[in-house]
Every structure is written in structure tokens, then in C-alpha cells.
Design goal:
TIM Barrel; Beta Polymerase, domain 2; 5-stranded mixed β-sheet; DNA polymerase, domain 1; 3 domains; 557 residues; alpha/beta; 7-stranded parallel β-sheet
Amino acid sequence: MPILDNKDIANLLNEYSQLYELHNGNPFKVKSIAAAAFNIKKIHEPLTEMSLETLSSHPQIGKSMGPKIHELIQTGHLAELDELIAQTPEGVRAILSIKGLGPKKVETLWRNYNICSIADLLDACRENRLVEIKGFGYKTQAQIQSNIEFKFNNEGKFHWAKLQGLVTFLNEVFEHSTLVHQYQVAGDYRRLNDIVETLEYVVECKDGKALLEQICSSENFKAESENSSSISCWYIDSVKVLIHLSDRTHFAYDCIKHSATEAHLNLIHFEKAETAENETAVYASLNLPYIIPEWREGIKELEKLELQDELIKVADLKGCIHNHSTYSDGIHTLEEMAVYAQHMGLEYLAICDHSQTAAYAGGLRPEKVLEQWQEIDKLNQKLSPFRILRGIESDILNDGQLDYNDDLLKLFDIVVASVHSPLSMSLEKANARLSKAIENPYTDILGHPTGRLLLLRSGYPIDHAYIIDACVANQVVIELNAHPYRLDLDWRWIDYAINKGALISINPDAHQKEGMNDMVYGVQVARKGYLTPKHCLNAMDLNQLLTFLSQKRQRRA
């Protein structure tokens, strides 16, 4: 039986609440289950280590949910959930995953209109059959169709970070295999792309068929194909692993060939490359210096060669900006977040809890802000010379205003302005809303500029050049939100921003202390966008940052 972590348990309870509501369960019980699923995400102690008594008395779980969570932990199943699953067609369960459709609407589609799969639902949208159904209409139908198509277009794609464990496992297999002489991860993963479709390797191997059998002897792997040049398999029926077979003479050549886009290979005239003992020598045969894998996109790498040694590194980051604590929707306390950052070797932490309008995330009322500042002052005395900055992630309201009045905004050390809702906007509306916030004299950083969640939602449309230009004109720093599901600003716009004179801040948007480590993902894509420390806000040391913020406020006063 697999060991469930807190996230697994929360996801199972979330499905339980949805199916229970779908089958017209008691509304109070639906809310109780959903609340437990939500609250568990804020508990950082492993639930698997808690007794039934501890679970039942936990304030974020409750007496009624304790036994159910204990059942999940002990058996890996929940009898009531299993029964609901058995009563629900698989296709109807899949429809529940479509954004914009709650259990009640799904029940209507299923029971009254016999829509029992995502394919059925898409057909209904395309034939305009939802518009006459109460609670739907043209706008809702269009959004549902858009969400379905987005889901279909992203099937079989994965966040880079999601594949790290699989890469580690395969590396160990190759490392200990007597069939393998040398290996190198390749493709999108080696280029540090935010999204990976196929996990590729180049392997010098004695016997490809035998290697495929060795890999597929491990649980969760299934062979797909094998020939003289490659072998492939599936991991958990979802991740395709493609292994390019090579020999000693061609290994370095093949590593470049399978770690670059066609555009890069054409740009460097790769057809003229010679086989050599390593990748540096292969590039040298083309009269080029070694080009790092993350640049092998065929965009501007030949124009930027002198920057390779100057690119931003994780070690260049002096502080961590945009973090949440238990004052809003974070898991760890302010002190826990600060101590963790200090142990990471950082000089400062900007705590930026949610502002008051984000009530769903425990947004801070003004009196709560003042209470937090008192704790910050005490912790700064205790942790000196480490410094906690008084920050806020202020919601950008629908009219472009920030969430507090100027009298309070001007007292923060740093203000990150972000859109959280509503996210459904036209290009014109989004541009106007963001530019209004950017013009606010107290906006220091524009947070996650498009609001996207990779593979989950595309975000609202913006004119990137227009918004970047507005940030430059108003001395507003642009966030590169480093959470692997965001990575927003997109790396493809970093070079434009730098050339216009913008500063980028690599922020983790951490909601727990370990989330600060997500800055590594931001650094990865920042390097793809040619970012150097001199163009990165949190590569400044504490004194430089405080001077920058002070001067910025003076210039815009």
C-alpha cells in the first residue's frame, strides 16, 4: 500500500466532497469534507504520524473527519468514497476536473442531458446545446469549451519540476547498469524548459533491448518500442521516456543533436559538425564556444555568447522577496520563514502576505498589518543582521487601484501588486488595469504579470511590450514568479525587459518555508532569458536594496 502524504489525503477528500455533492449528499457534510480538504493543505506535520485521537481533536480537521482520515491512512481507501466512485461513471468524474463546472452543474448535465464524458460535453458546446440550460448560457458555454480545449492541448505535458524524481530514478538505473557506458539527459528537460513533453536521454549502451527490459522490470514502466537507434517506454502510462542509443564516437555529437531545437542546429550549421570526445570539442569544430544547453533554442544565443559566464546563479541571490506566512494563507509562521531564509544564507526576507480584499486567503485588515509589523520589529532585533522587510502582496482591484489607502501603502518597505480576481478580462481591460496599478507611486513590483498557471490556466491576455514599457517608465520591478507552475514573467520576454532597462525580481511566492527553494526554478528560466545579476533586484545585498527602494520612492513622490 502506498504511503499517502498530506497532499494526497487532501486531494482524496476534495474528490469525496465533490462526489458527495454530486449525489445530493447533506450540504453541511459537503462543507465539512471540503473544509477539511482545504485545511489539510496548511498542516505541515505529516498526518500519517498522527493517532486517531490527535486527528479527531485537531482544530483544522475536526471530530467527524478524524476517523475518515485515519481510515485513509490505515487502508489507503475510504469506504464511502469507494462507494461514490462505483456509483459514478468514469467520464462524469472526468467532467468534474473541468474548470467552471461544480458538482451541481455536472449533475444536471449527467442526469438530465446524458452528458457522461468530456467528449460528450465538448460536442454539446460545439453544437450550442448548453445555452438553453438553466445556469449556463453563451458565455459559460464558451468558457467551458475553452477550458476543455486547454485541457486537451496540455495532456501529456509536465512541469519540469514534476519530472525531477523520475530523472533521479533513471540516472540511478543507468549509473548501476552494466549495459550502460555513459548517459546524458536530453531534450526539453536538459534545456530547462518550463514544460516537458517527452523525457529524452542519450545513452551509450551495449544492448538497447536488454536495457529496455531492465528499465521495464521496475514497477510502473511499460515498454513501447525498440529499434537500432532508440528505445522507448511509458512511466505510469503518462510520461513517455525516449532513449537515443549512441556509441562512444558519436556520444557527444548525439548529446548536442538531441538537446537542441531544430532552429538551434540550423543556426550553428550543425550538419558541418564533427564527432569529438566532448560537446565543447563538437562546438569547436564549428568555430564556436561551448553553448550551454538552456540556450539551445535557436533564438539569440549567438548574439549573447559573451554573457554565458555572467548569467544569474542561485548563489547570486541575496534575499527572498514575496513570501507568505500564517498571517494570511501560509503554512509557517513569520519566524519560521525568517529562520529558514537565514539558514539558506540569505540576508533578507520580504514577507508579502495577502491584502484585505483576498479574504479567501486570509487577507490582512489594516489592524492585522500593524500587528505583523510589531512582530517583525521584534524578530529583526532577535535575528540581526538578518532583516525581515515589511511587505504586502496588494491585490490589484478591478479598477486598477491597490488594496489599501496611500497612508498605509507608503509605510510598507516593499509592495508587490498582483491580480488575483477576476481573471477573466479582455486584452484592453487587462492592460488598463495593470497599467493603472503600475502608475501607483507605491507599487514596487508587478507580481506574476499574466496570472498564468502552467498546464492549468493560460492567464489573462496582456500586451507584454506595453506592460514592460509601463514598468520601466514608472520604475516598477517585474516579478519572475519562480513557482514551477507559474514562471511568470515568461522567460521569452526577459531579454526585451532587460533591453528596455527593467529590473527582474526572482520571487518564489512561497507559502511554506521549503517553497523558498523554488527560486532555483526561477533562476533556471531566467538564464534562458539571458538575465545577469546586475538586472536582478534580489541579487542586491540588503543595503543596496534598501537604497534602491528609498530612492525609487523619492523619485516618484
